[in-house]
Design goal:
Length: about 130
């Protein structure tokens, strides 16, 4: 596992920057355009959540190697208000911002591996991996 880079998310331009970083990393690793779009969309959702709910956080983009598999790992972390009920926010259609409610469940569907940890008052950590096929 090799750290590639991270972006601090504190405004909408940071969302654009981390999307571009993720797309470039995915392309460099050999992902096709469809998977590049999936990865970029997942990054965008995670960055948007940080911006909307925590105000500030970081997203890391790492190259992931497991046995013979190669992939991209996205780590989104904030010290925001945290999530009271993770099961509830992982339901399709649930939204606290008035949006479509596709955020975290959408990220889980777009990526191959997904994990979320959150403590109310302490923040949230989301880790997602997309494996190269």
């Amino acid at each position: 596992m090799e750290l590639q880079s991270f972006v601090t998310i504190s405004n909408e331009w940071d969302i654009v920057a981390v999307r571009q970083l993720g797309r470039n990393a995915a392309k460099e690793l050999g992902f096709g355009v469809v998977d590049q779009a999936r990865i970029t969309t997942a990054i965008s959702e995670l960055a948007r959540n940080i911006f909307l709910y925590a105000g500030e956080g970081k997203i890391w983009i790492e190259k992931e190697i497991l046995d013979e598999k190669k992939g991209i790992k996205i780590i989104a972390q904030d010290q925001g208000p945290g999530i009271e009920d993770i099961r509830k926010v992982m339901q399709d259609g649930y939204s606290t911002s008035g949006g479509l409610g596709a955020g975290l469940p959408g990220v889980k569907r777009l990526m191959d591996d997904f994990n979320i940890e959150s403590k109310p008052g302490k923040g949230t950590l989301v880790t997602a991996v997309k494996w190269l096929r």
